[in-house]
Amino acid sequence: MAEQSAMSFARMQDLAAQFWHWWIAELTGMMPEFVKRILFGGQVYQIVVEGDELAIRRVVKGAKGVEPVMVGLIDPSGLGRERLLLQDARRVELILPPEGYLKKRLILPRVAESNLREVLTFQLEQETPFRLSQVYFDSLCVARNRGSQTLTIDLYVAPRGRVDLLLEQLSKHAIRLDAVTVDGEIAGESLELNLMPGEQRRRGYSFARRLNYLLAGLVLLLGLSNLLFPLWEKSVELERLQLKAAQLKQQVVKARELRERVDTAKNEAGFILEKRMEHAPVLEVINELTHLLPDNTWLDQLEIDAGDVQVHGFSASASTLISLLESSNSFSDARFRSSITKNAINDMERFHLSAQFVTEATR
């Protein structure tokens, strides 16, 4: 009898141990990803664009500060090797290249800080060449001036087409991002901004609140597991199916939008660079005029409007200036805008001429 009781007790101990291991495994699987990273550690990784490839680098804090360490490239064949490189990731960021975003410094009234994003929504189309529907944006506060009651803001704008293509490409490799940002002053040090679409940002969790719920639920389930386990199992399955349905719905919406974005993505990627090259650089215009105009000629007024350059001044021989400008590869369509007049005071010829400055984009 005593031997049978001992065997029954040992059997109960074995079943209890099996239940405990199963229960811990289930709880770990239910934890949010960021909680598991906090509990089990992890690294910060950045995905950077290098030409037509996406590279993965790990952010290491060394004696000299933040140092990026390149660890590999994302495999376009889709074999999933990059997931091995990111298996210990605590945070994953996508770093946009300099040509992939526009930075604009704004000075706003300090009262705008309480509703800053709404204010920037109205300012965006006035301060940038984009419409709100074409871009993702975020901002950083650079300074607060108490004397003038103003706020200095750096506005960052990225074309939707370019960002969405990168997100779609990473999604195909099952890479989940925490942020889309840009490099800071030190390579590998990202800025505290996030250009990621709002619907794709991960929602935060209150760790203390979740832990309290977990402990309370553990006590309750230990006492009533025989009664509530079937119901709990069904609710977990329902939640999993609902989450899966929501993800599938998002994928269907993205697939419909992708068809329209593919046609415009290439144009939008080079839009910022083309806009910069369309305007005549002031220093280049002044430098070219300095080398072309003779010593007996000086200017008293210079106007530059996009590529149109207008020059007012005096010269000992103003009629030769047109041929001098036409001899340069930097100017075209040179002509006088008014008649040449003789100045009785300095005995010089007063002139007003114009020309088109030829930028690299229009050559």
TrEMBL record:
Which InterPro entries does the record associate with it?
ATPase_NBD (IPR043129), Extracell_DNA_Util/SecSys_Comp (IPR052534), PilN (IPR007813)
- The organism's place on the tree of life at top rank: Bacteria
Q: Which UniProt keywords apply?
A: Coiled coil, Membrane, Transmembrane, Transmembrane helix
Q: Please give the coiled-coil regions recorded for this protein.
A: 231-275
Q: Which Gene3D superfamilies does this one have?
A: 3.30.420.380
Protein name per UniProt: General secretion pathway protein L
According to its UniProt record, what is one Pfam family this protein matches?
PilN
Q: Which segments cross the bilayer?
A: 211-232
Identify the species of origin: endosymbiont of Riftia pachyptila
